[in-house]
């Protein structure tokens, strides 16, 4: 990986001018060890604990080959471990500095690709469909936090370096997903580098809402879990209500609150998404793992 990698160290980490420059140029930065092993374990227990955890609200979405990805999607952070992570300074605070102002959670989700059967995601920009939700500007971004090792074999995230500078690309339905215009993507692939964001558990990639990204199917014998949090600038409030969140103050917390949080079961106020209410996905509700 080129110059866009950083490492989180408690008490020392901050968004440097170099990191801002990298984000502006490439559209993404990688932060190693954003969550430590204890924090990752708390996250995993909250999402898929013995009682089913948050996955009781999950649904399955098919890619264009019929492979499945399990998704759990919600609006607001709440006060459980996932919410405290989303409201922490090392996550939300990093995006505030990268995007240049106050942010709030637009939505969050967990994607799970099972061994040998987890599906792919086609090339897309998040703003390619958020644009249609009344968001006037692409002052938005997403952080993907690896909950276990993500590599080429189990379908890690791929990003097209600098593709955010191409602006918003028209999107259309591709299988059960919404994807960027394939012809446009093909031309951009000829001039831009595709980076495989290979991450260890706890590593994260922060990327701009206009960055083209995708992932392959999981053809390994390992799971691939990812926690994704999307943020919007407070000044970019949607002009009409829709299935993701309008401006809601984030109430940022210190990073130390992640380990202090003991709430792994109370998900009140999160606003889980039913796929029937989201025009950009095609899914069926499932239960358990």
From TrEMBL:
<dbReference type="InterPro" id="IPR008775">
    <property type="entry name" value="Phytyl_CoA_dOase-like"/>
</dbReference>
<protein>
    <submittedName>
        <fullName>L-proline trans-4-hydroxylase-like</fullName>
    </submittedName>
</protein>
<dbReference type="Pfam" id="PF05721">
    <property type="entry name" value="PhyH"/>
</dbReference>
């Amino acid at each position: 990986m080129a110059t866009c990698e950083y490492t989180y160290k408690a008490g020392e980490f901050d968004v440097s001018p170099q990191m801002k420059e990298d984000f502006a140029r490439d559209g993404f930065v990688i932060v190693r060890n954003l969550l430590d092993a204890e924090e990752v374990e708390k996250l995993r227990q909250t999402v898929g604990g013995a009682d089913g955890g948050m996955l009781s609200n999950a649904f399955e979405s098919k890619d264009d080959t019929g492979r499945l990805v399990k998704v759990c999607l919600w609006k607001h952070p709440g006060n459980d471990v996932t919410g405290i992570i989303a409201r922490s300074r090392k996550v939300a605070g990093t995006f505030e500095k990268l995007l240049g102002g106050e942010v709030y959670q637009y939505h969050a989700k967990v994607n799970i690709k099972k061994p040998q059967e987890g599906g792919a995601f086609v090339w897309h920009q998040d703003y390619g469909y958020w644009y249609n939700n009344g968001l006037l500007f692409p002052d938005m971004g997403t952080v993907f936090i690896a909950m276990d090792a993500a590599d080429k074999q189990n379908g890690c995230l791929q990003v097209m370096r600098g593709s955010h500078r191409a602006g918003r690309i028209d999107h259309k339905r591709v299988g059960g997903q919404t994807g960027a215009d394939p012809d446009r993507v093909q031309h951009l692939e000829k001039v831009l580098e595709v980076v495989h964001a290979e991450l260890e558990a706890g590593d994260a990639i922060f990327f701009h809402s206009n960055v083209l990204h995708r992932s392959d199917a999981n053809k390994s014998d390992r799971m691939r879990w990812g926690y994704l949090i999307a943020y919007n600038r407070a000044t970019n409030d949607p002009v009409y209500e829709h299935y993701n969140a309008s401006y809601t103050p984030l109430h940022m917390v210190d990073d130390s609150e992640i380990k202090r949080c003991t709430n792994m079961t109370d998900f009140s106020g999160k606003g889980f998404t039913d796929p029937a209410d989201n025009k950009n996905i095609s899914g069926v509700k499932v239960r358990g793992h």
